[in-house]
Write a structure and sequence with these properties.
This protein has about 100 residues and is an alpha+beta fold. It is about 30% helix and about 10% strand.
């Protein structure tokens, strides 16, 4: 059994040697600068910000449980949970509009 912390999105362990980041449950731009943060895999953190706007993160997705319930993030978490903890990939798509 490992003592490594677990990612609140994919629930995989976060060994100290894998890319990781802190996620503000309420975005700093929405008043969460001094609010709670969670440690997570960098790839999971990137997916959160690609899938959900800052406004919606602050309003509706400001807990690990709410993040895991989001349809896109639930599918991502299921997919990435079958990868090793250090797995990296580009996050496709995003919330920003692409120029034509």
């Amino acid at each position: 059994m490992t003592d490594d912390p677990r990612c609140p999105l994919c629930l995989r362990p976060i060994p100290p040697d894998v890319p990781q980041s802190l996620h503000h449950l309420v975005p700093r731009s929405r008043g969460g600068a001094k609010g709670p943060v969670v440690l997570m895999h960098h790839i999971c953190h990137k997916e959160i910000h690609a899938a959900i706007s800052e406004k919606d993160l602050a309003r509706s997705f400001n807990t690990p449980e709410a993040l895991r319930a989001h349809p896109r993030l639930a599918a991502f978490a299921e997919w990435v949970s079958r990868r090793p903890p250090g797995f990296l990939s580009r996050v496709p798509g995003g919330t920003r509009r692409k120029r034509r």
